Amino acid sequence: MKLTRAQESFRFYTRLNLPELTGLRVATLSELLALLKTVPGSSIYHHTHRFLQQHQYLSPEPPNDFAYWVSEVLGEDELGELLASIDTVQYATIRQLREKIIETIETYLKENKSAARKFAREGEEFHFIKSVSFVLPTHYCVYDLKEFSEVLAKVTIDSIYFHIFEARLRLERGNNDFSNWIENSLQDKELADQLARLDPYTQTLEGLRKSLLEIVRKRLEA
After folding, report:
1. Strand, helix or coil at 93?
2. Residue 2 lies in a domain
3. pLDDT at residue 147, as a whole number
């Protein structure tokens, strides 16, 4: 294919992540529900995406910290299953994901009033942690699809994580950075849509890199 030069270049960024204790802890479902409504989005993000951040070479479906605590500590297996079944990829923003978690717990408590009276044993309270990210520019800046493919093959998985997950969820851009750039600067909506349809939650980050490269290289060969 004839290479199109982008209207705007694409700068690859990377991120460093620091988990930080908030000092907030809960021992009951009612307390959990109350804090879920007020903790920063970075805390919701941490407890629903921790697996992807810390175990980047393993195969996700990312476990949900809320679901684990509800099941293993409070013994509310039914609610734990409901929380674990929330399909993270359906939600375009952390705000929407937060609202779904809150709604699930509120509905459960209305139907199971005794669950509100269960307390975690001392030392097994749920501690809210938030993710503090430091975003750093790399020296990679590309202007066409060939250059993009070459850099995508060698950037760190932290860079891929930032452009796929953080841009879409925490920064609320609605889509991943790669698709946005390809559609808006290269004017290739078909390729942008192909990348956007990839489910990043069902593969490792290295697997995701491979899938992205396969799609882009096929486009280059077309």
Report:
1. coil
2. no
3. 97
Please tell me the distance from the alpha carbon of residue 146 to that of residue 142, in angstroms, as a whole number.
9
Separation of alpha carbons 166 and 93, rounded Å:
10
Write down the H helix ranges in 20-93.
Answer: 29-36, 41-54, 65-72, 77-84
The CA dihedral of 30, 34, 39, 44, to the nearest 10 degrees, is 50
CA-wise closest residue to 101 among 128, 134, 123: 128
Alpha-carbon span 174 to 170, nearest angstrom = 10
Mean pLDDT by 10 residues, the chain (222 residues): 82 91 97 97 88 52 81 96 86 89 97 94 96 91 97 95 80 81 94 90 86 96 85
**What pLDDT, on the 0 to 100 scale, is given for residue 58?**
46
Neighbours of 29 (CB within 10 A): 25
CA–CA distance, 189 with 175 (Å, rounded to integer): 13
Residue 63: the pLDDT is: 66
Do 101 and 166 lie in one domain? The reply is no
> What is the pTM assigned to this prediction?
0.75
Report the distance separating Cα 6 and Cα 144, nearest Å: 6
Structural domain containing residue 178: 10-15+131-221
